[in-house]
UniProtKB/TrEMBL annotation:
Its cofactor is pyridoxal 5'-phosphate. This is alanine transaminase. Catalyzes the reversible transamination between alanine and 2-oxoglutarate to form pyruvate and glutamate. Gene3D superfamilies: 1.10.287.1970, Aspartate Aminotransferase, domain 1, Type I PLP-dependent aspartate aminotransferase-like (Major domain). It comes from Takifugu rubripes (Japanese pufferfish). Pathway: Amino-acid degradation; L-alanine degradation via transaminase pathway; pyruvate from L-alanine: step 1/1.
Length: 509
């Protein structure tokens, strides 16, 4: 048989993997943070590089919490330690401070062959896990942390996915229900779809600065029990996309609810360093649980997550993170280790980056002054940008933004005239028009969940102050023009939404 005949015959063979044979759970996964609006932004950037003229000079990506992509500079000490771990020959260089060298030596001593190129234990490098436990103990003012409860992860997302895999079981009415806040970070809805769990929505109170109300938790739990078995309660604090910081009293009430209903608590605390409002403070779920007494601390199953990607370092690309697991059945913990072993280990360079976050320079060490200055500069800038974002957005008729108390995002509610869209979801249409007319890339609120009858978008506060000012001014001008173009009648309050902002019905002068 000739080569051409062979090729022709091969061409008749259909694909083994098609949309018809694809895992349906993969098709069900949605992730708005990198969704269609973001793809369109990429198309526009490529067109501009090819000389296609647009009504804007650049695409401003405010869709994702990627600090370095937005121009934030790395923390010097973290990069020094990771560089030394990756290229130990630099230990001889006088350009690197001794405290960075000491940390790198310590990490390398626990690595196979004294190299970050070797696999670590599946749970992570032992000395880094010990440092994480020490950090948690200091953070929680003496509440003890056992390093054997600490697992290093590939970012927080990997840990969240691993824990959910352990929790999902059952069929039909006994299928695991996972309670998630709405609005939520779409990792959770995507993971629930992939694992064929049941998503149980509880709504945050927008009228009360996105507070978490236990009566709403009880409502959602009661309703879910009709069709699934709610077993998991997910909390994001500080909030993404909503930027709220939960009070200690609120956390106590949530933990009491979880105790009463025998729910496994997953506390996503990756923004614990990102608190900007003077009257807010981060309280870890673990510390509050400890202070509630042994009846709670020794029984409530709690896993908390942290990451290198947020905070003041913004080191998303290293994919470093950890989780601390409390009160898990010992036999189940063995299964968790088995599950983690399948993935071998998290990136060891990311583990080293995590070590710097939990073991920063101390006052007596040579890098302390520069490290503290860089850290405070980042956090002070974020606090300034949080206030700026809230103030400018609230000056626009038809937009209402709660205070950005923490995290890295604003999630304003927007009025969209009924005539604005016929073919697309209204908030998708709004964000698409915003991108096409201004180059500003934000994510529609429908990608995170929102009460019926309300519309939002999520934007990051990470651009530089100058660029953020430009972004907000362009957004303001766009919104006023949008209202003028699509409003055919005086906006009406949504009867289905008691939380509609009072000024959302105002028209521009």
């Amino acid at each position: 048989m000739s080569h051409l005949q062979t090729a022709a015959r091969a061409g008749l063979r259909g694909k083994s993997l098609t949309m018809a044979t694809l895992n349906p759970q993969v098709k069900a996964v949605e992730y708005a943070v990198r969704g269609p609006i973001v793809m369109k932004a990429g198309d526009l950037e490529r067109e501009m590089q090819q000389g296609v003229k647009q009504p804007f000079a650049e695409v401003i990506r405010a869709n994702i919490g990627d600090a370095h992509a937005m121009g934030q500079q790395p923390i010097t000490f973290l990069r020094q330690v990771v560089a030394l771990c990756c290229f130990p020959e630099l230990m001889h260089s006088p350009a690197f401070p001794e405290d960075a060298k000491q940390r790198a030596r310590r990490v390398l001593q626990d690595c196979g062959g004294h190299s970050v190129g070797s696999y670590s234990a599946s749970q992570g490098v032992d000395c880094i896990r010990r440092d994480v436990a020490d950090y948690i103990t200091r953070r929680d003012r003496g509440v003890p942390s056992d390093w054997s409860d600490v697992y290093l992860t590939t970012g927080a997302s990997d840990g969240i996915m691993s824990i959910l895999k352990l929790l999902v079981s059952g069929q039909g009415p006994s299928r695991t229900g996972v309670m998630i806040p709405i609005p939520q970070y779409p990792l959770y809805s995507a993971a629930i779809s992939e694992l064929e769990a049941v998503q149980v929505n509880y709504y945050l109170d927008e009228a009360n600065c996105w507070a978490l109300d236990t009566e709403e938790l009880q409502r959602a739990h009661r309703a879910a029990k009709q069709h699934c078995q709610p077993r998991v309660l997910c909390i994001i604090n500080p909030g993404n996309p909503t930027g709220q910081v939960q009070s200690k009293k609120c956390i106590e009430e949530v933990l009491h609810f979880a105790h009463e209903e025998n729910l496994f608590v997953m506390a996503d605390e990756v923004y614990q360093d990102n608190v900007y409002s003077a009257d807010c403070r981060f309280h870890s779920f673990k510390k509050v649980l400890f202070e509630m007494g042994p009846e709670y601390f020794n029984s409530v199953e709690l896993v908390s997550f942290h990451s290198t990607s947020k905070g003041y370092t913004g080191e998303c690309g290293f994919r470093g993170g950890y989780m601390e697991v409390l009160n898990m059945d010992p036999q189940v913990k063995a299964q968790l280790v088995k599950l983690l072993s399948v993935r071998l280990c998290p990136p060891v360079s990311g583990q080293a980056a995590m070590d710097v976050i939990v073991n920063p320079p101390r006052e007596h060490e040579p890098s302390y002054a520069q490290f503290t200055k860089e850290k405070n500069t980042v956090l002070d800038s974020l606090a300034h940008k949080a206030r700026l974002t809230e103030q400018i957005l609230n000056s626009v008729p038809g937009i209402k933004c709660n205070p950005v108390q923490g995290a890295m995002y604003a999630f304003p509610q927007i009025y969209i005239p009924p005539a604005a869209s016929l073919s697309l979801a209204p908030d998708m249409f709004y964000c698409l028009k915003l991108l096409e007319e201004t180059g500003i890339c934000v994510v529609p609120g429908s990608g995170f969940g929102q009460r019926q009858g309300t519309y939002h978008f999520r934007m990051t506060i990470l651009p530089s102050p100058d660029k953020l000012q430009i972004l907000l001014q362009k957004l303001k001008e766009f919104h006023l023009h949008f209202l003028e173009e699509y409003s055919q009648a005086e906006p009406q309050m949504s009867s289905s939404n008691p939380e509609q902002p009072s000024h959302a019905s105002k028209q521009p002068d």
